[in-house]
Amino acid sequence: MRQRLERLGTCATFVLAALEEEVAVARALQHLLRGRPTSILIASTTAPAGPEDVIGRAMLRAGCHIERFLAPVEPGNLLMLGYKDEVPVVSAPGCFRSAKPNVVDLVLPPMLARYHVTGWEIACLGIGGLLPKHRPARPCGPRRGGSSVIRFIGYSVRKWTGRFGNERTN
């Protein structure tokens, strides 16, 4: 995730890790939200399984409303987007770990520019096929708890400079 943010000319101002349990994740989200970040990115060890999942329930407990779950983009269809006031909270799909393009690359730049990305706009992304390899599906159903191995990592991102990291300044 750090490399993806650096390509966009920004970085995480605060990174917080917690056990992937509803109460712990909600508390971590509330702590990150106190800093009034441009956006919060949630990177867990598995892809979100929906609003009934540990991460989805924690987002709701922290006061977020879920704007959209699922995106018509592969890889990255398991994206979950919520908002707490005007701060977007994105639970990134498992493919965020890859440096290859995925749905996070499509939604992150406008969010960093403080544009309010709607569920409808994510639904209209239907370009699909960003990566030629098809990955096997993960088991269906929400996760029901955490263990000491599973972690939640929240990234609080500062305001975007409006430039990508590879641009030259003259």
Describe this structure in words.
This protein has 170 residues and is α+β, with helices and mostly antiparallel strands. Helix content is 25%, strand content 21%. The protein has helices at residues 2-7, 22-34, 54-61, 103-112, 119-123, and strands spanning 12-19, 39-44, 65-69, 80-84, 87-91, 151-157. It has a six-stranded mixed beta sheet with strand order 1-6-2-5-4-3. Helix 2 packs across helix 3 (54-61). The protein is globular, with a radius of gyration of 15 Å. Mean pLDDT is 78; it is low at 129-152 and 163-170.
Biggest sheet record: 6 strands, mixed
The strands making up the biggest β-sheet line up spatially as 1-6-2-5-4-3
Helix content: 10-25%
pLDDT averaged residue by residue? 78
Task: Please give a quick description of this structure.
By secondary structure, the protein is an alpha+beta fold.
